[in-house]
Amino acid sequence: MTAAARIIINEIKGYHRFLKFMIALVVLGALASLVRFVFGLGATTNLNDTYPWGLWISFDVVTAVPLAAGAFTLGAIVHCFHIKKLEPLVRPAIVTGFLGYSLVCVGLLLDLGQPQRGWHTMVYWNVHSPMFEVSMCVMAYTTVLFLEFLSPVCEKLGYHLPLRVLRWLEMPLVIAAASISTLHQSSLGTFFLIAVDKLHNLWYNPLLPLQFWMSAIFTGISIIILEATMVHRYLGQPDESELLEVLARILPWILGAYLLVKFAALAFLTHGPLFDRPGLLVLFVVEVAAGVILPMLMFMKAAHREDSRMQLRGASLVIFGLVLNRFNVSMFGMEQADQLIYYPSVTESLVTIGIIAGHILFFVLLAKYFPIFEHHPETVDYSIPDHCHAVDEHEQAKGAEA
Question: Within 10 A of 153 (CB to CB), how many other CB atoms are there?
């Protein structure tokens, strides 16, 4: 065993039991992924001609993409609207977004019937397909997030020149991130517009792309609140409740606008029965009431916006509502009354659990080894430290005496 391997093993032994548990889940997910590649989709999943999109698309892609939207949302708020006091929250949001989109790419490769042909998207363009637009935007946005993520890496390694170049590119990257995200967040909703006779009328309407984009914005803000609260509690990072209050003031407006769009679409753009499936109606009511209306009312009160516990509860409700909405659109609302219900297989479930665990694990490790939570990274001083000047003056004094 090499010295480097021993160091790594000893480092892992010192990890908290929670991190070791996450590592075990990631290993299980990797093994399940290997089984999928060896035996194929048909043998390892419960996908079929009726349900060609299952858990890996519903969660790993359709749900995970808006959950990683905090990077472009906060970047636009801080740099485009000049709310600089929120700067300390940007870097963790970028790391979350980069990890989220990287794992989305993993989920896509697993779900492709011929993953070795994934590169065909970049060569054989089908500009009329929303899948083409989403795939190109996801690849482009992941690249942008990677470039933004390089800043703490360069700081850690002391690469000053690349760091200055990255900071010079900061504004163009923020603009590119906001533009690309707007395109593919809305295009995820465009996918389901082709399911005219399959997606239930409670969710099918022409404004679905707009709803997907708006929900990504308020979910991105909620993810930032959840993330900042949790790292303060369990990683010993500074309490950002004061900054999160600013985000909490923004949330009711976006949630209210989303609610207006959603009900306007139901009232004027939906054609067909809405109350013919009691089970789906219950899911719709829970999604809207618990995931939109309740947190909107909570964040309208100043006392709740200032309370870190209420911030966490409200953000958690928003995230729950988003996850339920994406499953309602991509899975539950697609199920027909006379068809067998789709259940994910053990392999599908282990892969998804491994991806979630991987996101948590990598975020904690990056926070442990890189300056993710530096409050003012833009003020790093590359000049000679004061103690070096003191040493030089002492040496000069000794020389003069000699």
Answer: 17
Q: Is 248 in contact with 311 (CB distance < 8 Å)?
A: yes
d(CA 95, CA 316): 20
- State how far the Cα of 98 lies from the Cα of 71, in Å rounded to an integer: 8
pLDDT along the chain (402 residues), means of 10: 68 78 94 92 86 86 87 80 81 89 87 83 86 86 88 86 86 83 86 88 94 94 92 84 91 96 93 90 96 96 92 95 95 84 91 93 87 57 39 45 45
Output the six-digit token pair for 242. Answer: 């004061």
Superfamily holding 47-342: Formate dehydrogenase/DMSO reductase domain (1.20.1630.10)
Interatomic CA distance for residues 212 and 326, integer angstroms: 9
Q: Could you state, in order of their start, the residue ranges of all structural domains in the chain?
A: 16-46+344-371, 47-342
56, containing H or E segment: helix 55-58
Question: What is the distance between the alpha carbons of residues 391 and 300, in angstroms, rounded to a whole number?
Answer: 57
d(C-alpha 203, C-alpha 330), whole Å: 10
